């Protein structure tokens, strides 16, 4: 299971996190249902660069809904196809 974290802190929320979440939900449903988990997270201290998204250990900033298909293709699909050899269980809750 690959986990995508979308910051839902106040700044990212105002910068469009709900729309980014909807875009990820659509992409997951279309391309990899039951293989990707989408979670919200609190502020990642990158507020001026939000919306902040984390795919396992990698952080992406200024993410817009239009970026989601490319991000999914380039960052999430390889993790699914690779069997998530990296530390897919890395949790933001620990940072
Ligand atoms: S609110 Fe998202 S990084 Fe701070």
Quick description:
This protein has 95 residues and is of the alpha+beta class. The protein has helices at residues 10-14, 17-31, 68-81; strands at 2-7, 36-41, 53-55, 58-60. The structure holds FE2/S2 (inorganic) cluster (FES).
Describe it:
The protein has a single domain (2-83), classed as Glutaredoxin. 36% of the residues lie in helices and 19% in strands. The chain is globular, with a radius of gyration of 12 Å. The chain is of the alpha+beta class and 95 residues long. The model is unreliable at 90-95 (pLDDT under 50). Bound molecules: FE2/S2 (inorganic) cluster.
Keywords summarizing the entry:
4-stranded mixed beta sheet, binds FE2/S2 (inorganic) cluster, disordered C terminus, alpha+beta, 36% helix, 95 residues, 4 strands, 19% strand
Percent in helix: 25-40%
Distance between the termini: 20 Å
Low-confidence stretches: 90-95
- What compounds sit in this structure? FE2/S2 (inorganic) cluster
Strand order of the largest sheet: 2-1-3-4
The number of distinct helices, counting runs of at least 4 residues, comes to 3
Structural Rg: 12 Å
- CATH class descriptor name: Alpha Beta
Shape designation: globular
CATH superfamily: Glutaredoxin
Count of DSSP E strands?
Answer: 4
Q: Beta-sheet strand percentage? A: 15-25%
Q: Just name the CATH architecture.
A: 3-Layer(aba) Sandwich
Which class best fits the helix and strand makeup? alpha+beta
CATH fold-type name: Glutaredoxin
The overall pLDDT average reads: 89
Q: How many structurally independent domains?
A: 1
Q: Can you summarize the main beta sheet?
A: 4 strands, mixed
């Amino acid at each position: 299971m690959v986990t995508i974290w979308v910051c839902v802190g106040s700044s990212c929320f105002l910068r469009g996190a709900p729309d980014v979440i909807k875009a990820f939900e659509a992409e997951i449903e279309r391309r990899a249902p039951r293989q990707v988990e989408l979670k919200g997270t609190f502020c990642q201290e990158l507020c001026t660069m939000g919306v902040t998204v984390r795919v396992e250990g990698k952080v992406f900033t200024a993410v817009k809904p239009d970026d989601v298909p490319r991000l999914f293709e380039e960052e999430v699909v390889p993790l699914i196809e690779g069997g998530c050899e990296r530390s897919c269980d890395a949790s933001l809750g620990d940072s």
